[in-house]
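Chapter review: from sequence to fold.
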Amino acid sequence: MKAIVVGAGMAGLTAVHTLKKVGFDVVCFENADSAGGRVISSRRDGFIMDPGAQFFFRSYETCFRLADELGLSHERKSWPFRLGFPKDGNFLPVVASIQPSEAISNLGETIRFLIQAGIPYKAMLQFIGILPILVKRYKEFNLIDFEQALDLDHESLADFVLRMGGKDILEYLFHSVASALTLAPPEELSALYGMGLLWNMINGLNTFEHGLGTITERLAEKHADSIHCGTPVDRIVIENGKVKGVEVNGSLVEADIVIPAVTATKLLKMAPNLPDSLRSALQTVSYSACCHVVFALPTPLFPKDCYALLTPRITNAIVAGFSDNSVKSEYYAPPGCSQISCWTYDHHAHAINARPDAEVKQILIKEVQRFLPAMPDEPLFTEIYRWREAVCIGQPGMLSAMARLKRDHFRDVKGLYLAGEYLNMPSVESAARSGVDAAQAALRQ
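The token string follows.
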């Protein structure tokens, strides 16, 4: 039997890896010139940049098991998730963590933040209405096994927070979390997805010392003989309820198994004759856009050890926030230097993506200077990454549709096994797990 994997992002690479471990005949076609998808790293002048995904949550069991298997245990790195919120032309830092060691060691900073941040007391009281749900139901906010919490999937995060808390806590906390992690406003996320992201975020962050893309680079290198980059698939051929193969450059490449590991929107175009049971579920999936701009700087710009500065929408910022990847690992920037990532989001991202690089650079420099006046007019260099489909945003009803698809319709096309982060609570972990699950289901065939 022969298998074809479409797409060499995280889901596709884990599918290839799982199949090849048991000696299965598999070939992977990737549209881009290199593998990795949205989990990649680039390097320039001693700086390491992560153009897409920025970190792994500490709860990423599949990713870390895979890293151990690939000999990357020594590369895994965690760091205190210290955030800053704007206040009187400066940023007040606070460690957002439920890890006992981090929470206790930074208790003084947390108390100062609560006193000085200027967050309305009303917002703090509103959070008390939501906190019991986070605490009581935290086990249900699993990125993979979330079906017990599907009652939270049919309401937007914004409506849920307004109902259980109020507008102040929506603007000061939940908008910041939603926009920073999904590049979309809380009105577009389900309450389940938003609460799940918040819980997993404060549980801790990890990376790899030499870039988040280390894991996809190792997978692509290990299975280079099976991966064909720069080779777009025109169509997935389905006849009489069964996959026949894929069309590449107008020619049919036959296969018994096809694992499409692409975004849901691409899959809908690539497989126009999917049955309605699959198509209707895939149509619930949507993605945010982003123009990610990285500035390499000769000196630090953020407060000491601060990883991210969040910009709630009450500031009228065009970015969800800024982050400094040099905090993640000593290898991300040369000694004494820093790198500032700017994350445009929502409708701002679409507008910025339409502008030429020179304009994008100047717009974002001015935006940084609004919040951080020490930002120089000319950085060491600027890198611009444009994502038309950046993050799967988990809109209301999507996770319920995926749960039904996996339970009742996963085998509606014989030989077709879907993989992608949209099948679970959207995340890199979900992408990795979906690739493993698709490959294992194919092997059982």
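Two observations follow directly from the output. The two ends are 10 Å apart (CA to CA). The chain has a mean pLDDT of 92.
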